[in-house]
Amino acid sequence: MSYNKIDHKQFIQALNLPEKVKIVEVGPRDGLQNQSKTLSVESKAALIQQLSDCGLATIEIGSLVSPTQVPQMANSDAVYLAINADSATEWRMLVANQKGFDRAVELSIQRIAVFCSATDAFSLNNSHCTVAESLARIRLICKQAGELGISVRAYISCVFGCPYQGNVEFNQVARIAARLDQFGCDEISLADTIGVGTAGQVNKLLQTVSQFVAVEHLGVHFHNTYGQALVNILTALQSGVRIVDSSVSGLGGCPFAPGATGNVATEDVVYLFNGLGIETGVDLNKLIATSWSISHRLQRLPASACALAYGANSQEPAIPAQSEAIGMKNDRCQSLRSSNHSAE
């Protein structure tokens, strides 16, 4: 894709933006865990390899959790064994508890992710424990991980709002982030699990949390429920954040957060960053092709404005199953028109 030529360096300086951003691709885990269709080990490994080939340097490949709780992640250990262990890509695996951590150690996984919530209500529904109990478990995992040289990334869910409790106090988020930082977590991702955050709230939250945790250790993780994810990301970058989570094709949602839609689409994020002159190392054309490819496998359309626009306007053969996907889009539009006529 091409853009009008602008002085990116001057633009970046004027808006207080970074020259480079780290994108953490969470599609194979956070994206797929809420899909009705469960993919095979081979399909997941193929997706992960495609994402790596796009230039995404950090990919969360799955989660070692109870298959009863999250059946779509039941084959995550097999997925890890199926991918290229010698790749320069940084693979991460989410672990839910001590059992998951022990399995990660058995698999010789060197980078894991852990999670807790900003509210007891969500934590009890998601992990069957309070926030305090969750932090106690994470502290033990971090201690063991440190002894084994395993890198730990942490998520804090529901930082802007909880589906069970409502509003969340930013001071509570800051206290949790400070504890995770003390435990030795390399990165702490602030997750808008239900996608209710706005730019003003993002600015205020980061001001609050950065009083306790260095902003270079913070990442942001936005769901696009209310269409605010991209402006929230831009606000976070202007506040000093340099780590952004996203999911190919806008895949996602949360099994424990009613009403939450998908994560912000990686291709939309890369399109934004390319236009601003921010380096990501990601090939957007390959990424859009990957978006259509996984959407085809899941028999759905991409939840990405960028992928949909490109798919509708481009005749490039690089996009797998493009004609079928566009046909799906046209069929859906026709179906909606028919429904509207019936309602009338």
Short structural summary:
This protein is α/β, with parallel strands linked by helices.
Describe this structure in words.
This protein is of the alpha/beta class. It has a single domain (about 10-285), classed as TIM Barrel, CATH 3.20.20. It is built from 14 helices and 10 strands. The chain has helices at about 10-15, 25-30, 40-55, 75-80, 100-105, 120-125, 130-150, 170-185, 200-210, 230-240, 265-275, 285-300, 305-315, 320-344; strands at about 20-25, 60-65, 90-95, 110-115, 150-155, 160, 165, 185-190, 220, 245. The strands form 2 sheets. It has an 8-stranded parallel beta barrel, surrounded by 7 helices. Helix 10 links the parallel strand 9 (about 220) and strand 10. Helix 8 crosses helix 9 and helix 12 (about 285-300) packs across helix 13. The longest helix is centred in the last third of the chain and has 22 residues, at about 320-344. The radius of gyration is 20 Å and the shape is globular. Residues about 315-344 have low confidence and may be disordered.
The figure for the number of domains is: 1
Instruction: Please bin the fraction of helical residues.
Output: 40-55%
**Helix run count:** 14
- Could you name the ranges where pLDDT drops below 50 across 5 or more consecutive residues? 315-344
Spell out the CATH superfamily: Aldolase class I
Large-scale geometry: globular
In the CATH hierarchy, what is the architecture at level 2?
Answer: Alpha-Beta Barrel
Biggest β-sheet strands, sense, barrel: 8 strands, parallel, barrel
| CATH level 1 name | Alpha Beta
How many β strands by DSSP? 10
Overall radius of gyration: 20 Å
Query: How much β-strand is present in the residues?
Result: 5-15%
**CATH structural fold name:** TIM Barrel
